[in-house]
Specification:
The protein has two helices and no strands. By secondary structure, it is mainly alpha-helical. The chain has two domains: 92 residues; 50 residues, no CATH class. The longest helix is centred in the N-terminal third of the chain and has 90 residues. The N and C termini lie far apart (143 Å).
């Protein structure tokens, strides 16, 4: 009889352990499901925040690049304007402006230009500045 009670007790203990293990496993599975749900919620919440953070950083970087591009364009336009001004100054470097020159009496523009060039050559020769020929660029000789 003691033997049977011992067997029943042993059988009971084994089944109890099995039920405890199953209950622990069930609780562990339930807890894992709850944990999975919480992780998913946190991830989804952070995903929205993460995309917002990334979007802010990208927008900030684009604004910075845009500012640099505008600055470079401004500097480039200033440099172009300065270069154009330098070229214009260089082209006028050897210009001479003479006032109170007598009017030419030639009928055509070519005749008047030739007379003006001859007058300039005569003037420079009399001043002894070393000009041996008067070179007037076409459309550059003007009377004002």
């Amino acid at each position: 009889m003691y033997k049977k009670i011992a067997e029943l007790e042993e059988n009971f203990n084994e089944k109890s352990k099995n039920y405890d293990n199953q209950l622990t496993m069930t609780m562990t599975c339930t807890e894992m499901q709850e944990l999975s749900i919480k992780v998913k919620e946190i991830y989804e919440g952070q995903e929205g925040e993460w995309t917002h953070v990334v979007k802010k950083q990208v927008n900030s970087a684009l604004e910075s690049v845009n500012d640099h591009i505008n600055e470079v364009q401004h500097n480039l336009s200033e440099t172009r304007a300065e270069a154009l001004e330098q070229r214009e100054k260089e082209s006028r470097r050897n210009n001479v402006v003479l006032y109170n020159i007598p009017e030419s009496i030639g009928a055509r523009a070519e005749d008047r230009n030739r007379e003006d060039a001859a007058f300039c050559l005569q003037l420079f020769s009399s001043l002894q500045v070393g000009v041996s020929e008067c070179r007037c660029l076409r459309n550059k000789l003007r009377r004002t």
